[in-house]
Amino acid sequence: MLHLADLRTQSQALFEQFSTLWRRLDLEAAKNRLDEIEKQLSSPGAWDKPEKLTPVLQEKSGLEAEISRLEALKQAKEDLEEWLLLAEDDQSAEILETLEAQTQLLEELLQITEMNMLLSAPEDSKDAILEIHPGAGGTEAQDWAQMLLRMYVRWADAQGFKAEYLDFLDGDEAGIKSVTLRIRGTNTYGLLKGERGIHRLIRISPFDSSGRRHTSFASVDVIPDAGDDIVVDVKEADLRIDFFRSSGPGGQSVNTTSSAVRITHIPTGTVAQCQNEKSQHANRDSAMQILKARLYDLELRKRQDERQAEYANKMDISFGSQIRTYTLQPYRLVKDHRTNSEMGDVEAVLNGKIDVFLRDFLLYLHAEN
């Protein structure tokens, strides 16, 4: 436990950081805009065409989350000030423990606020479509892809986000051959966009009876979900739609009928497929959503190419191209090669604690621009 002098010094630094950030925030403006939206939604006839309210409801949800975060930040700062005053008169272990906990809380909320301020691009607020594909290496790489899937699902759960499967293909013996997720939540794409790239794992292989060390690769792609509020012009004449039988364990006719769907956008060569649903119609709808999201992302990348060329380029799933390395042997370390961020607690990272890497990438991207 820290001494009062140390806690006082740490708190003062946090108060200065709070003051700098707070001047750039506008809680009252957010509340006023939320009031306007609520009046709009309660006006006569507002719900006659509910489909047109989707962007308004999304903005409302984002404002509510932002107001909640800012009010929590302000309250944490005020609580820390009160506990500092109490500690001046009573330096008991209980008071100092609470003071230290309040210091940590304010620090965490400041980091979250700073990270959200870095999400200024229009697409940052959208849901994310995340894809994982193993590199060469058979079962070893497919198992690594499944470990990454588990990491992102656990991260989403910890954030209160919803992860839903759009496409899933089991590995031959273990792991996965490919997976596509939609992760819904505030600023999901903005938070996850730095995960796009090649992820490398170094470990003693559980599939090697000789106990040798193996290096595995998997690619992660993250694109913003175009949603219903963005019009992506897709002409039927530009599409080739193929139907085929689903792969995997099946059950309830999943892999006994031609319910899986693959859609190719002929002008761009963009492909999307879905085989996770039981019906051909549901798979077609999901595949179209993925296709529109990819076309939307393709347009975004064209616009960002000049100022974010390194970020936009897709690298080979091979040595020398990784954005992050997860080392389990001969030492334990996770290192991001773009930001040089490191964490020694590999288990925590693989269990979804990746916020340090997400935040540092946003700071890196902000500095680059």
Tell me about this structure.
This protein is α+β, with helices and mostly antiparallel strands and 369 residues long. The protein has helices at 4-22, 27-42, 54-89, 93-117, 139-159, 188-192, 280-304, 309-312, 346-350, 355-368; strands spanning 128-134, 162-170, 176-184, 197-204, 213-224, 239-244, 260-265, 270-274, 322-327, 333-336, 342-343. An eight-stranded mixed beta sheet has the order 2-3-1-5-4-9-10-11, sandwiched between helices. Strands 6-7-8 form a three-stranded antiparallel beta sheet. Helix 1 runs parallel beside helix 4 (93-117) and helix 2 (27-42) packs antiparallel against helix 3 (54-89). The longest helix is centred in the N-terminal third of the chain and has 36 residues, at 54-89. It starts with a helix and ends with a helix. Residues 249-255 and 306-315 have low confidence and may be disordered.
Neighbour order of strands in the largest sheet: 2-3-1-5-4-9-10-11
Span of the ends, CA to CA: 40 Å
Structure summary, number of beta strands: 11
What would you call the structural class? alpha+beta
- Helical fraction equals 40-55%
Shape summary: globular
What is the makeup of the main sheet?
8 strands, mixed
Strand content: 15-25%
Tally of helical runs: 10
Query: Which residues sit in consecutive blocks of at least 5 with pLDDT less than 50?
Result: 249-255, 306-315
Alpha-carbon Rg, integer: 24 Å
Which H/E pattern describes the elements? HHHHEHEEHEEEEEHHEEEHH
Mean pLDDT across every amino acid position: 86
